Amino acid sequence: MEGVRVSLACALFLFAVSSIASAAIVEHTFNVQNLTLSRLCKRQLITVVNGSLPGPTIRVKEGDSLVIHVLNNSPHNITIHWHGIFHRLTVWADGPSMITQCPIQPGHRYAYRFNITGQEGTLWWHAHASFLRATVYGALVIRPKSGHSYPFPKPHKEVPILFGEWWNTDVVALEEAAIATGVPPNNSDAYTINGLPGNLYPCSKDRMFSLDVVKGKRYLLRIINAAMNIQMFFKIANHRLTVVAADAVYTAPYVTDVIVIAPGQTIDALLFADQSIDTSYYMAAHPYASAPSVPFPNTTTRGVIHYGGASKTRRSKPVLMPKLPSFFDTLTAHRFYSNLTALVNGPHWVPVPRHVDEEMLVTIGLGLEACADNTTCPKFSASMSNHSFVLPKKLSILEAVFHGVNGIFTADFPDQPPVKFDYTNPNVTQTNPGLLFTQKSTSAKILKFNSTVEVVLQNHALIAAESHPMHLHGFNFHVLAQGFGNYDPSRDRSKLNLVNPQFRNTLAVPVGGWAVTRFTANNPGAWIFHCHIDVHLPFGLGMVLVVENGPTKATTLPPPPPDLPKC
Could you say which EC number(s) this protein's record lists (predicted)? Predict the structure, then answer.
């Protein structure tokens, strides 16, 4: 019996040693600087990381620690957000400007340090200060730790596919003008795949992403929508895709010929190269415009897939173009968004918490900003439950929480909208025009540690009915149900999926509709919950969740790092 105990102790020791040995500290330097690029017949000055667009792909394994040294050699204030990372007890590295840190000023630096725990798949990083996200972004790929495998056939190759938007202008000045006037900024001039617009745009014949494949091989496409304001339809001619993960959470395999992806979201999809090698195939993406009355750039970006071993040269090959859905095809978008489900009992699967401690109904959408003299301004505003979020200017919210500084934010975000109305009726303001005007505030909701929170997100139609991609920092949430019209608990509670709902960090709430989400507030800190359409966040479509400390040191917010930037 003693020998069994010794053997068991040795086995546990070796397991612990091997687990530690398999983890690594992955270190990178991000040099943020200006760069002049030629696109669309014009040379444009932009801000990038390490001289490239997109920026570098960060590759780690689950269990690794990341250290990213950011050197700001640009003329702009900057922060970097690690989109989708949980940041358990490393909230100081989350990155949203004036939420968890003051920005890194020109000529200064900051080291982001955090662990990759309990997550595998595709995430990404991007600027979280002003419109710099348009060009400051890149992929963050998390593979299983050593000795572990994917819960799907091993791919021959992994390929990041990042959608973006390109402006033939200074994007920082564009945002500043939008904030000053209250008018949304001009639409982008092109969409891009991996920084390249594709040959449907002027001066772009040779600026198109190209992927070489081998017939009979399987490829893992790590798809990221880094576009600023646009949800995208994506197809590859004559090929079907199998979705295996969303927002770095494994899903039940879902076979489709079209991907729909909102800003901030990621999709992992397997591509099986099974078509004729004597033909090339375009991959193409264009907008899903959920609000037809709102102007949008109705253009298409595309790349191309070439099969190796063909008898014809690339120039002589025919190239097939996929038929993309209509820009306004809400049914196709909703079918894709609502059909994804979790891979139950897969790696890092999290069951739905059944007991709910906090229930919230939050309305989201555009309104108007009132002038000081109570007359109507020609300014758009955006809000959650009529609270239009304003970033603090003197101190970040997280620093105010940690140091107990008053006057930076108010703990008064409501559990219910201040006024109940027919949310999705576009004519409701004819009888109650006061609904249009939003209240400017820096509001937070205080949550007890480990409480279970259910948030019903309800789009309204006061200005326009549209789909909003809502992103929660620091957590994933279960998407229990989605639908159109006004949420009605007596009718819609029966639709909740408590068995295998998707579990993600960014959700496209259906146009003129609602979604029920649920998460456990087990991560102390200050976390922003906001719309990932960047034209909406500066107008106020956000709020903050402050999660209180837990009972132990391991569940207590640590002090700020010594190099945290100062305001």
Answer: 1.10.3.2
